[in-house]
Amino acid sequence: MAPKVLVSDKLSETAVQIFRDRGIEVDFQPDLGKDKEKLAEVIGQYDGLAIRSATRVTPTILEAATNLKVIARAGIGTDNIDKEAASKKGVIVMNTPFGNMITTAEHAIAMMFAVARQIPEASASTHAGKWEKSKFMGTELTNKTLGVIGAGNIGGIVCDRARGLKMKVAAYDPFLSEEKAAKMGIEKVELDDLLARADFITLHVPFTEATANILSRENLAKTKKGVRIVNCARGGLVDEEALAEMLKSGHVAGAAFDVFAVEPAKENPLFDLPNVVCTPHLGAATTEAQENVALQVAEQMSNYLLTGAVENALNMPSVTAEEAKVMGPWIKLADHLGSFIGQMTDEPVKAINILYDGVAAELNLAALNCAAVAGIMKKANPDVNLVSAPVVAKERGIQISTTNQDKSGTFDGYIKVSVVTEKRERSIAGTVFSDGKPRFIQIKGINIDAEVGAHMLYTTNEDVPGIIGALGQTMGENGVNIANFTLGRSEAGGEAIALLYVDDAVPAEARAKLAETGLFTQIKPLQFDVA
User: Fold this and answer.
1) Domain of 271, in residue numbers
2) Fewest CB atoms less than 10 Å from the CB: which of 23, 81, 138, 170?
3) The one catalytic residue among 263, 291, 451, 495
4) In degrees rounded to 5, what are phi and psi of residue 334?
5) Where are the alpha helices (DSSP H) in 175-273?
6) Does residue 404 fall inside a structural domain?
7) Mean pLDDT score of the chain, rounded to an integer?
8) Which of 495, 376, 467 is closest to 427 using CA atoms?
9) Phi/psi of residue 317, each to 5°?
10) Where are the alpha helices (DSSP H) in 345-430?
């Protein structure tokens, strides 16, 4: 059955056609996002939800979204999506950060020009029939210092454009390396240094716990007298009350805001102040940007629903379409390894340790981590997936660690998953063969070579004669056909294991018969999703 997508906000017809061309059933209802009750009523039918800013994806909507796998926002901001609730539900949240980068950066530059030359006020005065030439004395941008808070995708473009205007650019960004700053032709500085030096300050960071109120009253007081502040990023980054006071006192010479702490902004402390330019969140409002993000969201959602590629996800690691082709068998392996341990473990898990060897260590480890953790968590929560697993693990206080190493043995690469509980540590390792099939290669430190089947039986015992006979005879007497039979032992006469791949689940009667022999210390039926 073809995946089904709901478009609940306005999206270009070209983007809608992309879904259809890719074989996805699309329901285009551009006004549905405004009707919460109706959206909750129908959302259970869909695998994907494409939105802009009008649709609010609340916990109530997500509770009703019984089949939903992905929500994609045509744009950068996802404040209208409850990402925590989506993650717990196992729904991927995507945005489209690249479609409107240039548009938003250009708007910031335009706002900087507008506040430097007081263009809106001068225009209004001239329209009113006045000729107040001396009233609107401006300032040049050339040779001024621009302080950029956040030099990522959009901030980086602003830096480039500002250098073209012959401005001196100083950037505060904890994730910006000195090497990258040098390559961009800008100076990396600490925030206090930027505040003290900048003639203009522009913000280009998301709204997070770390960035909320980054230009607080205290930080605004550290700014250079006569500074002009531009915010085309997110509301809530600047203390608007404090900024209004400093504009009135003259410490801040001007401000240009496209975003506000409360939107729609019907009233605000910055409104009606001289030399304050305000626009109604127009950063991405160009024909080109709206078309770009719409096309991007259709491509991303289609890629995920059809190939498993995850692009620009906010609540799980991204996996490109190219990576998905290579990663598929390894993600399945990580899930199988986690599932094996999860089914074997009855007590609470304290820690999960994952070792990546050889070629496995060169893959997208964040995605593999999610798969392994999801496999472990499925026993307690069958609905858990790559998105929700890390959230569930964090809620339970489980510590997750990873180790990478170069090729260390026979296999080109392998993954080893270990789980620590109050009582024990349990481990299993596996690899992917050239045929793309995952294999178990070690359990409890004992080497084996076992194909993974939908139904399996795992046993442990002392290495004594009669084990193979007991297993074969009991399975035969109970009508269970053995597809594959793997044995392993630590040493002659030591601990031994057996892993049977069978056509059907081993019935309780057969397991009871095995227990009656007294040969086995553990008998455990296992199930794996091998589809």
Assistant:
1) 101-278
2) 23
3) 263
4) -60, -40
5) 178-184, 191-197, 217-221, 240-249
6) yes
7) 92
8) 376
9) -65, 140
10) 365-377, 389-395
Q: Is residue 11 located within the same domain as residue 77?
A: yes
C-alpha span between 497 and 468 (Å, rounded): 11
Cβ atoms of residues 130 and 116 within 8 Å:
no
Q: In what order do the strands lie in the sheet with 413-421?
A: 399-405, 349-358, 413-421, 425-432, 438-443, 446-451
Pair (472, 509) in one structural domain: yes
Q: Please identify, among 439, 471, 501, the residue that sits at the C-terminal boundary of a domain.
A: 439
| Residues listed for the chain | 531
Indicate which residue of 22, 52, 73, 234 is catalytic.
Answer: 234
Is 323 one of the catalytic residues?
A: no
251 given a catalytic annotation: no
Supply the CATH number for residue 489's domain.
Answer: 3.30.70.260
pTM of the model: 0.64
Q: Give residue-wise pLDDT tens across range 46-74.
A: 999 999 889 999 999 999 999 999 999 99
Count: domains in the chain: 4
Co-location of 467 and 496 in the same domain: yes
User: What is the reported pLDDT for 220?
Assistant: 98
The pLDDT of 295-317, averaged and rounded, is 89
**503 occurs within a structural domain:** yes
Which of 22, 107, 228, 281 is catalytic? The answer is: 281
Residues 256 and 325 in one domain: no
Residue 273 and residue 144 in one domain: yes
CB 452 within 8 A of CB 440: yes
Q: Domain for residue 115, yes or no?
A: yes
**Sheet containing strand 168-172, strands side by side:** 187-188, 168-172, 145-149, 200-203, 227-231, 252-257, 276-278
Let me know if 25 is a catalytic residue. Answer: no
